[in-house]
Amino acid sequence: MRKIAALYGGCSQHHRTLNEPKYRRFFDELIYLPDLETASLDKYDVLLCPSQLHQGMVEKSAAKIRAVAERGGTVVAFGPQSRPWIPGHHWEFRPTNFWWWLDKDARSGLVQANPGHSLFQAITLEDSTWHYHGVFWPPEGSDVLIALEDNGAILYIDKVSTAGTWIVTTLDPDYHFGSYFMPATERFLDGFLPWLAEGTW
User: In 62-179, where does DSSP find H-type helix?
Assistant: First the structure.
């Protein structure tokens, strides 16, 4: 099983999600974000960056985060990312429709861009569907797994920008599970975290 560290921003949503026993077992360490500047990440294979982290503090330690991928490790980023600490992510803001599912003939707009990928043995598109916060236009050569019908990546894997891997999504399952709503987000984490720990990409 891979050694995984997760950043902890101090908010209630992070606390609940990262300390939920069925998820906590996947994390070798929770690193409080203000301590990241002096923390060592050398022993970890994966660094998980939850959504809703203080972006100014993330940017302060951006070089340290990128170094995980530059030495061949994996960095996971959940949620919207308007600041450029992720290599080549090209964020595009789009208004979030929280109530799309109430529309007649409701469609989320999300599609599987690579349905044969191993991630979809762990989760389904339905498990990844609640709403989204903007889109990414990832670097050429990235593997887009979930996209919008009208283009733009919702979840992609980038193995071209560094020697390692970036798993980047606009989805924010940690926020919603930690806030006690959106059942799909629990299903997402139930599948995603075991895949992150032991799966292939």
Answer: 62-70, 173-178
